[in-house]
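WARN no homologs supplied; continuing
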Amino acid sequence: MDIGTYELLVTDALGCELLVTPIEVLLDRRVIIPNVFTPNGDGMNDTFEMINIDDGNTQVVVNNRWGKTVFESDNYGRDAFWSGGDTPDGLYFYKVESNGEVYTGWVEIIRGNTP
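OK structure emitted
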């Protein structure tokens, strides 16, 4: 559903109708950063993709649990996303700078069985 104002027509099992208006659908601008991805080559959830970041103008640094940087980008999202590379399954810690905000947290890689 696109952003905008809508009318909603609800009909029950007896055929009674109720028109609800206006229903306003707003654009969600919250940054959403997943806490798991599964780079197993099945074409689903194979990369660490974030929603509502400033595409191509976002800095990302990912460290392992010992503080070693395993991935970094100053242009995240424009050309590529982190696919986990050859890092083993487990927890990694990120710092993301986008739209003047800084986000920190963890992400888990779970490859499991490849298709």
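The chain has a mean pLDDT of 90.
OK
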